[in-house]
Amino acid sequence: MRTGRASTDTVIGARVVTTANTLAHQPLSPLDGRYRGAVADLSAYLSEAGLNRARVEVEVEWIITLTDRGLFGSTALTADQKDALRELYRAFGAAEIEWLASTESVTRHDVKAVEYLVRDRLQTLGLDAVAELTHFACTSEDINSASYALTVKRAVENVWLPKLRAVIDALAALSHEHRDAAMLSRTHGQPATPSTMGKELAVFAWRLERVAAQIAGGEYLAKFSGATGTWSAHLAAAPDVDWPELSRAFIEGLGIDFNVLTTQIESHDWQVELYDRVRHAGGILHNLATDIWTYIAMGFFAQIPVAGATGSSTMPHKINPIRFENAEANFEISGGLFTTLASTLVTSRMQRDLTDSTTQRNIGVAFGHSLLALDNLQRGLTEISLSRDVLLADLDANWEVLAEAIQTVVRAEIVAGRSQITDPYALLKELTRGRRVGGPELAEFVRTLDIGDAAKERLLALTPAGYTGLADELVDRV
């Protein structure tokens, strides 16, 4: 009997091991699994392969820059040779990825593996004569800082920022569509002066556009000044060359910005600024997601059913606001990661330490969760419909919010000498604080007020739905 049990345990154990081996090859991060489709465009820039492609680009362009200037007796490459050399990064693909992985397993140094790849391809192209210009006078951070500046800039400008602007555009469109949809505001969760749904959505679009402009105008800095930022090796090899100017021209020629004064590393301040701004945008968008969620819960927005979708596994009637909940959670994750990136990258021990190296490998993860959240928000904003009847019913149940208008008009009448009321605020507070006041009751109160006839007529004509000030016009600011 014991033998049978042992045999059964052995079989079960073998199955567990087999299952574990199979699962070990599955994506660990949901960004590379469940949500891959929403964030895949970032991989071209912020993956390990994307970074290595940029590293090859920087190494290749540095060789071309040095040979164009005929340094150390070199001859400028022909147009065909340059094109062939540039194909190393233009056609960067599976073969290069595999080659680098195999080489790095020996070198234990990622940038050195890239250098060896370029040298190997130079030999294949018959350009052995310029092989020693590969990685010439560079420290790894020269290549890395330029590569990160290139990849992050391209990811932001080509993928992340267009998605943010798509959300802003969706908000702007909704704000114009609902510009005249009067709604009861709630300050501190309590009924307050009415607004319009369009104006409230326009506030978010306005806030986001401001941050988007800051992000679009940001710098992407790189250094190219050698081991400790002094161009020492460069001057030892060619003391008559203006290396700072040559480096500046090279980096700016790549389409990024040059940092002339650094330690071994580029100081990463531009990254701190960028990640703080992206986190800021995420905070505004998180606020939007929670507000829309609340409006849905209040019935202000109805969710448009998606064919075949299930809201609840047990309650068939439900349509859960999953787009906004997903966005909320992923903005929290990305915000935490961006905060960590910014707080870590702002400092480095003396001339450098390697905390920045491992930290920067998570840039793509932070942007991935942010992009996923943006994608959910953009989709969610197309799956809601404004319930204007609910807005109007809410307004009609809260006539007491006109107390602000009444006491303000009375004050103006006192100043104009058309009223003898001594404390209009206290008068309205006694009537409305902590209690509902209906339209007829409020109208009767207005009729008894000691104010001019014109003011009284304006107040009697006022309704909660009509007390929205310039909300409609303010939408035009977006």
Automatic annotation (TrEMBL):
Its EC number is 4.3.2.2. Keywords: Lyase, Purine biosynthesis. One of its GO terms (molecular function) is N6-(1,2-dicarboxyethyl)AMP AMP-lyase (fumarate-forming) activity. The keyword Acetylation does not apply. InterPro entries: Fumarase/histidase_N (IPR024083), Fumarate_lyase_CS (IPR020557), Fumarate_lyase_fam (IPR000362), Fumarate_lyase_N (IPR022761), L-Aspartase-like (IPR008948), PurB_bact (IPR047136), PurB_C (IPR013539). The keyword Membrane does not apply. Residues 348-468 form the Adenylosuccinate lyase PurB C-terminal domain. PROSITE patterns: FUMARATE_LYASES. Residues 33-327 form the Fumarate lyase N-terminal domain. One of its GO terms (biological process) is IMP biosynthetic process. Pathway: Purine metabolism; IMP biosynthesis via de novo pathway; 5-amino-1-(5-phospho-D-ribosyl)imidazole-4-carboxamide from 5-amino-1-(5-phospho-D-ribosyl)imidazole-4-carboxylate: step 2/2; Purine metabolism; AMP biosynthesis via de novo pathway; AMP from IMP: step 2/2. It holds the Pfam family Lyase_1. Catalyzes two reactions in de novo purine nucleotide biosynthesis. Catalyzes the breakdown of 5-aminoimidazole- (N-succinylocarboxamide) ribotide (SAICAR or 2-[5-amino-1-(5-phospho-beta-D-ribosyl)imidazole-4-carboxamido]succinate) to 5-aminoimidazole-4-carboxamide ribotide (AICAR or 5-amino-1-(5-phospho-beta-D-ribosyl)imidazole-4-carboxamide) and fumarate, and of adenylosuccinate (ADS or N(6)-(1,2-dicarboxyethyl)-AMP) to adenosine monophosphate (AMP) and fumarate. This is Adenylosuccinate lyase. The gene is purB.
